[in-house]
Amino acid sequence: MDLEHMVVDMCQAAKTAARGLATTSSQAKNEALLKSAAALRRESQILLAANAQDVESGRGNGLSAAMLDRLTLTEERIEDMAKGLEIIVDLPDPVGETVAMWRRPNGLEIGQVRVPLGVVGIIYESRPNVTADAAGLGLKAGNAVILKGGSEAFRTNGAIVDVLTAALGEAGLPPAAVQLVRSTDRKSVGVLLQQDRFVDVIIPRGGEELIRAVTEQSSIPVIQHFSGLCHTYVDAAADLDKAMRITLNAKTQRPWVCNAMENLLVHQEIASRFLPPFVETLEQAGVEVRGCERTRHIVPHVTAATEADWQTEYLDLILSIKVVDSLDEAIGFINDNGSGLADAIVSEDYTNTRRFLQEIDSATVYANASTRFTDGYEFGFGAEIGISTNRLHARGPMGLRELTTYKYLIYGDGQVRE
Amino acid sequence: MDLEHMVVDMCQAAKTAARGLATTSSQAKNEALLKSAAALRRESQILLAANAQDVESGRGNGLSAAMLDRLTLTEERIEDMAKGLEIIVDLPDPVGETVAMWRRPNGLEIGQVRVPLGVVGIIYESRPNVTADAAGLGLKAGNAVILKGGSEAFRTNGAIVDVLTAALGEAGLPPAAVQLVRSTDRKSVGVLLQQDRFVDVIIPRGGEELIRAVTEQSSIPVIQHFSGLCHTYVDAAADLDKAMRITLNAKTQRPWVCNAMENLLVHQEIASRFLPPFVETLEQAGVEVRGCERTRHIVPHVTAATEADWQTEYLDLILSIKVVDSLDEAIGFINDNGSGLADAIVSEDYTNTRRFLQEIDSATVYANASTRFTDGYEFGFGAEIGISTNRLHARGPMGLRELTTYKYLIYGDGQVRE
Known about the structure:
Two copies of one chain form a homodimer. By secondary structure, chain A is of the alpha/beta class. The first copy, chain A, has 14 helices and 16 strands. Chain A has helices spanning 3-21, 26-42, 44-60, 65-71, 75-90, 129-140, 154-170, 187-192, 208-217, 240-252, 268-284, 293-298, 327-337, 350-359; strands at 98-103, 109-116, 119-124, 144-148, 178-180, 201-205, 230-234, 261-267, 288-291, 303-304, 318-324, 342-346, 364-369, 386-388, 396-398, 404-415. Chain A is globular and about 70 Å long. The mean pLDDT of chain A is 96. Chains A and B meet through helix 10, helix 14, strand 13 and strand 16 of A and helix 10, helix 14, strand 13 and strand 16 of B.
């Protein structure tokens, strides 16, 4: 069978499976997840063997040490995958939740009820744990999942999906509920992205290049996660201890993630008190500081920030600092330069804080807390399928609920339209 | 200025206007809507004069009588536009609604709050009332609106938008909140559809061809309204009076709209009692009936339905009838052949009704009511910007709420991530 037929058949089978999954009880889905977790543990030797082959090829193909590390499975990482599935079991099932229900004057009762999205395509790079994780989240929300992992993890992903589908079958769920595109031919992705008859949404997980390529090729809606160019604004009325703690955390706790701070704005009234000790602390933490002219007037030894610096997501221990005249300037700067993902104000002033929260047009806006909390787990979703930088459907951290849509159920007793 | 620059500048101005509108009070937005309504009434002679020119050109270009009728403004239709805006004033403002709020163990309070989508592009055909209607709904939900009407209504739409923007200015809102692409060059649409930096969503209103063309060209998410191939299933346990009333209404009350019934399924046990009187009633109402073999066994004079009939949205007084063996067959048939917009069961049986509501994968699923209620007004939304056949973001009738997204406001007192 050629590649195109193979992918189309998978998508069609997924659509059929999705129809059954939509009305599968939470109990049955949880049972399948528990059996999957047990199977991952039981078959760990098979997984490790498949992974060893991928790692060997990867080494031969000159993968970097970091990529090899991400690719490598260990008993511990398999245990983490299994535990991840068990955690999903404990999350409430979003399917069937009544979002709203009301009665019309003519007696019709209209209920808006959550239902699965249908078929979810997930395209991802390297880490094989995404395979189990995405399959588990998709399944719990009643969706059929089509996975397309990176070619470097081809055998590992295949082995994981084999284990999962066997477990689904054992639990009486359709094996087509979790499928892997078993091809390293890039064309397979192109074919998948055109199956809008069968696939309801595509979630790419990876770098900006991957997401752009997927978006360009796709006739299916894509949930995008573009860059996180996050700001913190230290207001004139900031509590300096909080400002220090929050900004240091936002920059240094995990600088390579999307919700880490890239630009710091400081109100002019507080800059000369805040910046000297803060820059010292940053530098002790290994951060390279770049500053606007006014910043460099206060801490002369820092590098001059260029125009490009304000718009660069370094994902590294680099911070650009700008002194601003006012809250208005800070808000304007963030709305113009930020990526709309996560921005914070540090202030004890009620009106300034309220204005910042209202006027900053970002998925997550913070008062007196670190931007690092933009994360499904930290939001209490119990899991995260990704963080959306789209405005439609899902915005910000996505949990199980964001893997659902809704339908309206209308209860009548003979109503007709006049 | 060339076409491309003109459109890009409009989109950029809309983005800026949207930022201001996002925090504009409901009061100010309502004031602008009331002034717009008053201005439409006051300037009716200008609107009628512009419209007369469009109608004359249309006649010259050979527009059909139906299209000319849709295009023609009258004092009464202008009054309806003005009243339409006043009705929007009375609707609750969706912006600022707190969808949910919760406290995390670390003391962070997270609120999910509705905010405008941003910039909404609306591409539509003929009826000039859409101009005022879409502008009003977009504005009330805090969005900037870019309108692209049909070229046959070029002068009329221009005159309406002139009146509206003057009224916005009077009310102190940015005139760029409502803009019209003033070009009959089709390329202008192509340029608009590539402005994903500035425009957040495209809503095409018109035929399937328009929607497909827009979707193919757009790098911006498109809310689609494809066909409505709606079914009613008359169960073995149906109350025959209700069945008669509901199905007749679904077929004949307004056959040319998307929520009218196209296919009727009847359980075999009830077919011989239901079909003879029902087909007679249908035929008296001018409906052409086509039937499966078993239907024709009961009412032999009806035309044989072909395979294509089950998948055709006639939008006309034509109905295809199929006798089915079981509820399962009905559900399978509807999920396979329907368009997922609106489907109904007529039954007094609890379990069958419950199964139908759960298993039919459509935006609106009815028990004992006409599919004709799939409509924003009938749902109690007070207005309708369209009906979505997408599964993401909005599904089914769209009111003001569907013109919003959300953001998270996070209130802390110094929290940092460990």
